[in-house]
Known about the structure:
Blueprint lengths: L2 H28 L4 H12 L11 H5 L5 H22 L8 H25 L1 H7 L7 H12 L3 H10 L6 H25 L5 H31 L9 H17 L4 H11 L13 H21 L8 H29 L4 H11 L3 H13 L5 H26 L28
Helix pairs in contact: 1-2, 1-13, 2-13, 4-11, 4-12, 4-13, 5-7, 5-9, 5-14, 7-9, 8-9, 9-15, 11-12, 14-15, 14-17, 15-17, 16-17
Protein name: Cation:proton antiporter
Pfam families: Na_H_Exchanger (PF00999)
Membrane topology: Multi-pass membrane protein
Amino acid sequence: xxxxxxxxxxxxxxxxxxxxxxxxxxxxxxxxxxxxxxxxxxxxxxxxxxxxxxxxxxxxxxxxxxxxxxxxxxxxxxxxxxxxxxxxxxxxxxxxxxxxxxxxxxxxxxxxxxxxxxxxxxxxxxxxxxxxxxxxxxxxxxxxxxxxxxxxxxxxxxxxxxxxxxxxxxxxxxxxxxxxxxxxxxxxxxxxxxxxxxxxxxxxxxxxxxxxxxxxxxxxxxxxxxxxxxxxxxxxxxxxxxxxxxxxxxxxxxxxxxxxxxxxxxxxxxxxxxxxxxxxxxxxxxxxxxxxxxxxxxxxxxxxxxxxxxxxxxxxxxxxxxxxxxxxxxxxxxxxxxxxxxxxxxxxxxxxxxxxxxxxxxxxxxxxxxxxxxxxxxxxxxxxxxxxxxxxxxxxxxxxxxxxxxxxxxxxxxxxxxxxxxxxxxxxxxx
Length: 431
């Protein structure tokens, strides 16, 4: 295939992918579901599971094998820019209800981790069968633990806004706890991805990653602080430097045998903020928009990797087990922690657990990283993507009944001392 032919195929494929993703994403929103569900289904429809079944070689004509690396590269660049903005905006210290957030986050992280690892230890034969050709070892067990512990902050924020929960106590606690859970999950995922090869290789990768983080903190960040605070008129646009930093950091972690996501998040977290601790308003917006423009390509490429035809009847039993474990582990741990640690009413506690069960974008990032690192194979990848779709789609229908207030009791003599005043909500929580 010549260069001109390659460019023609890539442009045509992007047009089809973005159109399908936008149409199905809009359809998902009409059904009060996150757009990521429709965009992922667009990828499944454009992949070998559906479009590949159409006679005449339509799938191969639209998506020849040689353009797959180009689409994947574009998807990864979009992911890097988007996650840099996420890392730059994440500031857990600005949230209220810190004690409640800590208890809910630790429970919502540890219990699903133990559930995921326990499934592998209880059903090793089932995982060896569905993950044939890939070892079911310590790294795999730890990876499955991470896969069941993830909560997607961007998708969760969208659900909170769509359901009219912004600023409410359960939403604030769930959103902050989800951020803590992700912060705890990324290092564990890094250990999983560094586990390929011998023990010496693992230690070498971990040591190099630690050295890279030290260089970023002790050398790169001071230079960035000086650069952002130097007196220049007019002020320099920080977006090009931030973009270069995000891509360079992503390349560094990828070269260390990990994934580009770690470098992007680290660069975003280390990018200096304003003196009042607020992210530079010139940064997150443009990077989110640039990354978000091609982010549907990531969802669609993820969906195109799902081969439903490769699944077997017995795999569906494991899918049911995975879905049940994922839902129970997240909802139960989040609800019990909110009830006991934060003293929330049961309705609000269950709402926290249901919100934490949202996986979406972050889960897809984890699954793609595992697939590229050969920790999981196509069959298990398909099952885990279906699990992510199910748990994310479940959030909306379950959130609706829980956010409605309970039926008021019959009128009784008012007792002002027995009715606590509602807790004020500041403007920062309405976001």
